[in-house]
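User: Study the fold:
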Amino acid sequence: MCIYCGTDRYRKIYQQHYGDIPKGYDIHHIDGNHSNHNPENLQSVSLLEHYDIHYQKGDWKACLIMSARMKITPEERSMLSSKSNAERVANKTHHFQTGDIQRKTNRKRLENGTHLFLDSELQRAKSVKRVKDGTHNFLGGAIQKVSNNNRVKNGTHHLLGGKQQLKQLADGKHSSQVKWKCHHCNKSGNGSTNYKRWHGDKCKFRLD
């Protein structure tokens, strides 16, 4: 799916001319025109290569979108977000900058009949349907009762956690007892939850 035009048509065009696309690879529009699906304008690149191409061009919006599929630090993502917002402000496409963007969106929703302020009857009909099929949030008491009964029966209810945790502790299988060793710095310790939350991918010796 193209990060700009929201279609995978260009991928099919690439495959028709060059064959299969390697798993995890993106298709880059060489001239920067994401409507130009000419086979000569399409290039197969890895995610990292695609990121680097747009990074060097200062295309921060593209980098920010691609970063969601990459392992980068929160600081790097924050930097990309700041640069992307500054870029949108500069080219007058930031949604906080002008009411025109929001106005166009609302007008489109009015035209296709999906605006929530357009028809209270539409909302009422949806609510009635949800009540009839038992999915309305106001029916939560009955729905939750059935759900809770099922969770109690299969032993997954959080109120049963005390007994389960005691058994896990007795068997030495509690998350706090799990031993871990970081493959980045060889540091070791106990507690899988703490490792994932405070060490793991945040290890300062991590290379990838």
About this structure: The two ends are 25 Å apart (CA to CA). Residues 126-171 form one domain.
